[in-house]
Design a protein that fits this description.
single chain; alpha+beta; 16 strands; 466 residues; 8-stranded mixed beta sheet
């Protein structure tokens, strides 16, 4: 752990720590902001530039001669979009037990576009290693929700073993007298203070949530993004592809050499009648008298196979270490069964399982603050955050036929609810059982009505001797 300013500390993974029960001084607050800007921002900026195709190779100094391709293979964006689509491509389900509170919750989730913003939080966590969900009161005194990048916000935790949130800091930089100064707010559990011009206001606003109104979402405890461990490989791949492009262009620009052959010359200039520069032509009429005339292209040795193997190896390593499979791989087409796909997705499935546990913990803390005012759910339901159910659904091709066969084979061995849970297209087994029972009752009723409508001679009776 490292001292930032005063009592402020920062851990190895960039988490800020401050003594419990105390409020930060002006110097300690701006010390945290300066540390976030000077030491954490460069990593965030580098990761975002990789995602936006602004790779290191574009900053390499231009060559003085020869082809100078600077090609970017944006695998970081592909990895993030693929992994995030797998994790949250299908919106998760957040619910309470059926009733008025659950109806109010679902209405609020739709009103604030909660799952769209959660998707952005997840993408930022993949890129930066962390993101922040923030709740606030809008102009109509309604509970709102949004996401904030760690480039301009952070959470300070207390120094207890539980590391509970102590304060949330949100800021922007504004130009003031030829220098940039931070302006924003610091949120404690009960009070909110404003700061700007290097000053921290003594006046405060009441925090209606009575809790820090922000929660950190993160990919892992190390706060690493999904491609942090492969950045050097990505840069090496860009370099290899660019060199490959240079070589291809070199062969397109190869020079034709004419040795020991005389061409007609211009009588005025004495030069051969041919555009040597435009046609990439080397004209050598006077060489060793013993040399035979020759016409050939000048080329350097071809290392195509070695380059292709190197490029393929880099690509394979990137996908393997990032734990995100490459669906364009030929092995996917050759192994189309459900079991084979499960094995292909197993590393990413394990990675997503860890992320799901982190997100579930953060979501529960977030809804604890959301429910605290009694606006989203009833006042009596403020503690309903403990009863929330979160269901994350992986966005992966489903082998429906195999799932149905597995359910049929398990019939008689497990309960009907367990059988239905084996089917990927059944979201709520209990509701499906109710629907089956309802349909069965309707079929029995229809059969009775049909029997009553039969003529007397077609009706049967147990006492009827005939």
């Amino acid at each position: 752990m490292k001292v930032v300013t005063g009592n402020g500390l920062v851990t190895r993974n960039g988490t800020f720590i401050y003594p419990k029960g105390q409020e930060m001084t002006k110097e300690e607050l701006f010390g945290f902001i300066d540390y976030n800007t000077q030491y954490l921002m460069p990593k965030y900026r580098e990761n975002m530039q990789l995602y936006l195709s602004q790779h290191m190779i574009l900053n390499v100094e231009n060559k003085e001669m020869g082809p100078d391709n600077k090609l970017v293979v944006n695998l970081p964006k592909y990895i993030v979009d693929t992994y995030n689509g797998y994790f949250l491509g299908i919106p998760p389900k957040v619910s309470l037990e059926k009733g008025n509170d659950n109806d109010s919750l679902q209405t609020w989730l739709s009103h604030v576009s909660f799952f769209d913003k959660l998707n952005e939080i997840s993408k930022q966590a993949d890129i930066y290693g962390r993101s922040i969900g923030f709740i606030y009161q809008n102009e109509n005194a309604e509970t709102g929700f949004t996401y904030i990048s760690p480039t301009k916000a952070f959470i300070v935790y207390d120094d207890t073993i539980e590391r509970n949130p102590l304060a949330f800091v949100r800021y922007e930089y504004f130009e003031n007298e030829n220098e940039y100064q931070a302006r924003g707010d610091i949120y404690y559990s009960n009070e909110v203070y404003h700061f700007e011009n290097n000053q921290l206001d003594s006046d405060f606003r009441i925090n209606p949530y009575k809790l820090v109104p922000a929660v950190e979402f993160y990919e892992n405890e190390e706060r690493q993004g999904v491609y942090d461990s492969v950045k050097t490989l990505v840069n090496a791949l860009d370099k290899a592809i660019s060199q490959k492009g240079n070589q291809v262009e070199y062969f397109d620009n190869a020079y034709l050499a004419m040795v020991g052959i005389h061409l007609p010359e211009n009588p005025k200039t004495g030069k051969p009648i041919i555009d040597i520069k435009q046609n990439r032509f080397l004209y050598l009429p006077n060489v060793d008298s013993q040399s035979n005339p020759d016409v050939k292209f000048i080329s350097k040795p071809d290392g195509d196979q070695m380059q292709e193997n190197y490029i393929q190896r880099l690509s394979d390593w990137i996908y393997q270490i990032a734990m995100v499979p490459n669906p364009a791989d030929n092995s996917f087409a050759k192994n189309a069964s459900g079991v084979a796909l499960e094995y292909k997705y197993l590393p990413m499935k394990n990675k997503a399982g860890s992320k799901e546990r982190k997100f579930t913990k953060s979501l529960r803390a977030l809804f604890r603050a959301i429910f605290s005012t009694g606006q989203v759910v009833s006042v009596s339901g403020r503690d309903a955050w403990e009863e929330l159910q979160f269901q994350f659904i992986r966005n992966i091709p489903q082998d429906i036929a195999s799932a149905i066969n597995a359910a049929k084979q398990a019939e008689g061995l497990v309960s009907q609810r367990t059988l239905l849970s084996l089917l990927p297209f059944v979201d709520d087994p209990d509701e499906e059982i109710e629907q089956l029972q309802k349909e069965k009752q309707e079929n029995i009723q229809q059969a009775r009505e049909a029997a009553d409508a039969l003529p007397d001679y077609l009706k049967t009776d147990e006492t009827d001797e005939k």
